[in-house]
Amino acid sequence: MFKLRQETPAEWATHVAENLDAFLIDHAACERKASANAMHFVVRYPDKADIVDAMIEVAREELEHFHQVFHLMQKRGVELGPDEKDPYVNDLLKLGYKKGEGRMMDRLLLGSIIEYRGCERFAMLSRELLKTDPDLAQFYKELAASEAKHRNDFYELALNYFPAEDVQERLDFWLDHEARIVRELPIRAALH
Question: In CATH, what number is assigned to the domain containing residue 41?
Fold first, then answer.
């Protein structure tokens, strides 16, 4: 398994904990988009049964996470917000192949990296929330574990379809660019 090449600054978790309502709006949107992305794989690659099976499971889990975050928002009196572009994801997508087998490998590897970043950040937020809200801290700890599983799902699917050395070469490309994007992102009450 690979590692991210840039850690999220510790200030991110503090900022999110102090602006939790705004973060929940973004978090809900990310979970909804993650579910839709997984279903996009099902539609785009219907002839690849292992992708279809794995992505249906990912879509279900992400939709359940969206539902859980929605309920948290309702308890706090926070409404869903309008859809906003995610600068992190959009900057990554600009760099990828637009068609063919290269697109499939890129989307699987990006899925893995984005889930990994979510895992890292949910774990950070969980530790930060232990100080003020142990129940919410536990929720984010569980989400971090789920994101870690999804990270592995996407990565293993890439290895099922492409030679390991090709996957590693493209993964190195993505990890370098992802690290640069994370360094350039402003700290905000958002998952990315």
Answer: 1.20.1260.10
Exposed/middle/buried for 51, CB within 10 Å: 0-12, 13-18, 19+? Answer: buried
Answer yes or no: is 55 within a domain. Answer: yes
- Say if 189 falls within a structural domain: no
pLDDT at 166: 98
Instruction: Grade residue 42 by pLDDT with cuts at 50, 70 and 90.
Output: very high
pLDDT-derived band at 1 (thresholds 50, 70, 90) equals confident
The DSSP result for the chain, as a single string, is: ----SSPPPHHHHHHHHHTHHHHHHHHHHHHHHHHHHHHHHHHH-TT-HHHHHHHHHHHHHHHHHHHHHHHHHHHHT-PPPPP---HHHHHHHTTS--SHHHHHHHHHHHHHHHHHHHHHHHHHHHHHHTTT-HHHHHHHHHHHHHHHHHHHHHHHHHHHHS-HHHHHHHHHHHHHHHHHHHHHSPP-SS--
- What is the pLDDT at residue 55? 98
Return the axis-axis angle of helices 10-18 and 20-44, rounded to nearest 10°.
110
Q: Is residue 95 part of a domain?
A: yes
As a whole number of angstroms, the distance between CA 188 and CA 35 comes to 23
